[in-house]
Specification:
- By secondary structure, this protein is mainly α.
- The chain has 5 helices and no strands.
- It has 2 domains: 56 residues, no CATH class; 33 residues.
Length: 121
């Protein structure tokens, strides 16, 4: 009987480690914290539910290895949501970059104005 308790504890620990080490974007069904709570409250049932419904499938866990950086590094993040319309997403990201560049230029201009000596009468 003591072996059953030890087996129970091993299943609990392995499941919790697996949940914690899994990327949030790959977890299915519920958020990560909900899976952790389920496994802590109902260890054996929670572990079985995690394996059946929450754990990412083999294809989801595999990420393509790419050594070169793309034009849009946001696309390279593992587990990133893939947009329904990638072209619209590219346009949105480009608009963000353009706006950020304008803000940097405005900040440089403002810094230049504050660094210039004031010309008084």
């Amino acid at each position: 009987m003591p072996y059953l308790g030890l087996l129970y504890l091993v299943i609990l620990v392995i499941t919790l480690i697996d949940i914690i080490n899994t990327d949030d974007a790959l977890i299915r069904g519920m958020p990560k914290i909900a899976w952790v709570l389920l496994v802590v409250v109902l260890p054996l049932i929670g572990a079985l539910l995690w394996l059946a419904f929450g754990r990412p499938t083999g294809e989801e866990r595999r990420q393509p290895a790419s050594g070169a950086a793309s034009a849009y590094p946001e696309y390279d993040r593992p587990g990133r949501f893939i947009p329904a319309d990638p072209e619209a997403d590219r346009e949105f990201l480009q608009q963000l970059r353009d706006r950020a560049e304008k803000q940097r230029q405005a900040a440089r201009e403002q810094q230049r104005r504050t660094d210039e000596p004031e010309s008084g009468p």
